[in-house]
Amino acid sequence: MRAVRVCTGFVLVASGALMYAASWQRWSGACGWGQEEGATCGPLQDHRYDFVVPRAPWEPVGDAATLAGLSLLALALAVVVLPAALAGRRPHLVVSVAAVALGLAVADAGLATVRSGIAGQVMSTWGGGLSGALGFLVLPAMLAGLAVVTRGWPLAAAVLLTLASPLVAAFTYAVGPYDAQPWWEAVSGTFTAAAGLCLVMAARGVRRPSASGLSPTPVRT
């Protein structure tokens, strides 16, 4: 589980960094942190510039969609092993199958976003509405459920990933005075990267001497 947590943690950090970079492409130079008004900032808050799975009508901004798509692909890889990484043990078969299904849904969204960024026009997901429903609704539910059965650093990671999810973002920090709040994708990316760091901390663990004093016994976190 230590190796699983370390690898998953670094993948989440990469995912968060890529999403932050995508947000930088959209808002840098037009909107400062906390800025919501302005001749350059206001127009960018229109939904036609959204790049997390672009939808028509859409106008690309730099490489934002490509970077966001790569972020989602990294997240998809992490989602597959999240139940094991967070719980610290082999998950139930049903949970493992659900995690794989959710990972495929997120990967589908990521590929559609990358393809849209490369083509400069909206490219649909292969799973249609099913991929969106799994990633938008089911993934946060799984993360919340995992948060209930974890503690310590893994609990912090599960909470942060829940806060980074599209469902929470859509009803909280992604809502602005116009269509979208400036830098909301960067906020999501920061939560994701922080969750990855929490998993790396969990992988470090704490060791204490065994009763015989001959060998250390790992303590789960």
From TrEMBL:
<feature type="signal peptide">
    <location>
        <begin position="1"/>
        <end position="21"/>
    </location>
</feature>
<keyword id="KW-0812">Transmembrane</keyword>
<keyword id="KW-1133">Transmembrane helix</keyword>
<feature type="transmembrane region" description="Helical">
    <location>
        <begin position="155"/>
        <end position="176"/>
    </location>
</feature>
<protein>
    <recommendedName>
        <fullName>DUF998 domain-containing protein</fullName>
    </recommendedName>
</protein>
<keyword id="KW-0472">Membrane</keyword>
<feature type="transmembrane region" description="Helical">
    <location>
        <begin position="126"/>
        <end position="148"/>
    </location>
</feature>
<feature type="transmembrane region" description="Helical">
    <location>
        <begin position="93"/>
        <end position="114"/>
    </location>
</feature>
<keyword id="KW-0732">Signal</keyword>
<feature type="transmembrane region" description="Helical">
    <location>
        <begin position="182"/>
        <end position="203"/>
    </location>
</feature>
<feature type="transmembrane region" description="Helical">
    <location>
        <begin position="64"/>
        <end position="86"/>
    </location>
</feature>
